[in-house]
Specification:
alpha/beta; 6-stranded mixed sheet
Amino acid sequence: MNRTLYITDLDGTLLNNRGKVTATSAEIISDLSHRGALISVATARTPATVEKLLENTYTAAELVVMTGASLWDRPGHRFVDMHLIPEADVLAMLEVFGEGEVNPFCYTLRGDNHLDVYHASTVLSPAETLFVDQRRNLTLKTFHLAQSCPVDSCSRVVLFFGMGPKDAIITVAEKLWRVTGCYVSFYKDTYTPNLWLLEVFAPGVSKAAGIARLKERVGASRVVAFGDNLNDIPMLRSADVAVAVENALPEVKAIADVVIGPNTADSVARFIQQDFMQ
């Protein structure tokens, strides 16, 4: 039996331009999941925001969260197979960030399902303020503003996440590449013009690696992946079928096997429905 794992990016792909899963997409995915379809997401987001976005969408498979740093067990409400950044790398990167070009959010693990998020600056940019305001009341995540990552938490760092203008982000990324073997990625924000995002995870972390672990766990023999942005390219290259939405960046469309409709037309859910029902 050919067991297919359908795995989709969220922002700009499954989510519409308002950052939501539409009622139509939620209904299609939930129905297919109840029928046995293996549908999951691979996202840079944490479970705190993913659970809110998927609150009306049933999925049976674990989710690939935080760019593959961990899987998320929805029924168990816990991280599975979490990859932490080595403490020596954390300390080296804190020195780079201390130069002040980009002030990142530092995510540390508490228990098996909670993240503490530290931000050392006493002043947030407008984009950072919006980021915090949209997340400060979520469960599974606690913000500690104007507070550096505590020394005793440096062994539990999962992610550094920064935002800013393109030139500043690229400059910091290049410095980080020189001091660490960790996964460093930067890309344009889906929603805010001229805003770029920076992610740093443990060595070997990627959406593609997370999907490979999930594929093995669910016993899938085929992977169909959906994406729109530069950070989706590795997972699309690793998939058996790479699908780009119409609104994807040209670089993403160029490596896709299939280009479907835009993220505003329930295109991902409809493609999965058609493929699964064949």
